[in-house]
Automatic annotation (TrEMBL):
Signal peptide: none annotated. SUPFAM superfamilies: PLP-dependent transferases (SSF53383). Its EC number is 2.6.1.2. This is alanine transaminase. Pfam families: Aminotran_1_2 (PF00155). It comes from Marilutibacter spongiae.
Length: 419
């Protein structure tokens, strides 16, 4: 008699993470068959030839003989002091080392923060589209995601009135992802001020995912939330993975700000949960001070003739030349979120499109609906490949959409012939 199958947590059925999901598994199968793929599903700089800056690597090497023991559950004291000073420089007067939490990437800290905050049935206001880890972490910590729309017609910026209308007696937090993944939207100060005011009126925690804070294009300028929030409780997330191209080091941080009495219990909960996992990866933490105080290596990549800028230009120009695509130009981050329009959009299904693109053109993208939107005519690409490779990607996308537009036109042509 075969053993009974192991049961898994029921709420896992509500979790989606297509960035590394079914399509990515199919991509691995095709690679095992000898196919060469262009994989645009993950914002992973090291996979596209980027390297972490040399001065960060040296800092780890120089500190490696001090990395054998566990460190404090909130992180290395020197790294936390450097982060506190950095955030005070951004205008957060109460940024102190004891309010800094270092984790195994921002992903771990998102999970810890929601575990510290939520009781079963509590609600978190999330952007739609969102980075799906936020939805997954809310669900797996027994919360309920409630989505506020960031519509393409509004440049993927949210409507504060809609956000406030969604607040209920169970709402605990508002999540902001700025600059945004997947859309590249960058939030202006006036918008942030209105969202902060909502949090203040309703006693909500602001959870601010700012991992792309220095990846900006053209005239875009980053506005951190915490200086505007002042006494309103706010947790600001960032790390080494994107700006400093060190994803595999797994070094993220969260800085807690706001009135001391208002955040005291939450601070203690975060500290307890950090202690239960002992500490974050220690070697990578030796790079934090070097990252904050060393040379700026991201701005040249985002300026004209820089690799990220030119990759973004390749995507923008390719979409402009397409018969089937539209795009809200990304102002920041490492992604573009094009939409399919016209005849190709008739009956369009983003997952079917992504699968056909993978099977027939050897390109892996992420369906837009994976980012918790109700529409199915978008997809996400990363801006990390070389510009010429991205232009080739969009030539292949155009071929697939040409076929889809032809299929959509066929019934119309048949009806016209019968008339």
């Amino acid at each position: 008699m075969p053993p009974a199958s192991l049961k898994t947590r029921e709420r896992l059925s509500e979790v989606r993470y297509e960035i590394r999901g079914e399509l990515a598994r199919r991509a691995r199968e095709l690679e095992a068959q000898g196919r060469t793929l262009i994989k645009l599903n993950i914002g992973n700089p090291g996979a596209f030839g980027f390297r972490a800056p040399a001065h960060l690597q040296r800092a780890i090497v120089d500190g490696i003989d001090q990395t054998d023991p566990y460190t404090h559950q909130q992180g290395l004291p020197a790294a936390r002091e450097a982060l506190a000073a950095h955030y005070r420089g951004r205008g957060i007067p109460d940024a102190h080392a004891e309010r800094v939490f270092i984790g195994n990437g921002v992903s771990e800290l998102i999970d810890l923060s929601l575990r510290a905050l939520l009781n079963p049935g509590d609600e978190v206001l999330l952007p739609s589209p969102d980075y799906p880890l936020w939805s997954a972490a809310t669900i797996l910590n027994d919360g309920r995601p409630v989505y506020y729309r960031c519509l393409p017609a509004n440049g993927f910026l949210p409507d504060p009135d809609e956000i406030e209308a969604l607040v209920s007696s169970r709402t605990r937090a508002i999540v902001l992802i700025n600059p945004n993944n997947p859309t590249g939207a960058n939030y202006p100060r006036e918008l942030i001020e209105r969202i902060v005011a909502i949090a203040a009126r309703h006693g909500l925690l602001l959870l601010c995912d700012e991992i792309y804070d220095s990846i900006l294009y053209d005239t875009a300028r980053f506005q951190p939330v915490a200086p505007i929030a002042g006494d309103v409780p706010c947790l600001s997330f960032s790390g080494l993975s994107k700006v400093h191209r060190a994803c595999g080091w797994r070094v993220g941080w969260a800085v807690l700000s706001g009135d001391a009495l208002a955040v005291r219990e939450f601070h203690h909960a975060m500290d307890l949960l950090g202690a239960l996992r002992l500490c974050a990866n220690v070697p990578g933490q030796f790079a934090v001070e070097a990252a904050l105080q060393g040379p700026n290596t991201i701005d040249p990549l985002c300026a004209p003739e820089g690799r990220l800028y030119e990759a973004r230009r390749a995507v923008v120009e390719s979409v402009a030349a397409s018969r089937h695509l539209d795009l809200v130009e990304p102002a920041g981050a490492l992604y573009a979120f094009p939409s399919v329009t016209g005849a190709a959009a008739e009956g369009f299904d983003d997952h079917r499109f992504a699968l056909e693109l993978l099977e027939t053109e050897n390109v892996l993208v992420v369906p837009g609906s994976s980012f918790n939107v109700p529409y199915r005519n978008h997809f996400r690409v990363t801006l990390l490949p070389q510009p010429d490779e991205l232009r080739e990607v969009f030539r292949r996308i155009e071929r697939v959409l040409d076929r889809m537009a032809g299929d959509a036109a066929t019934p119309v042509q048949a009806r016209a012939a019968l008339a």
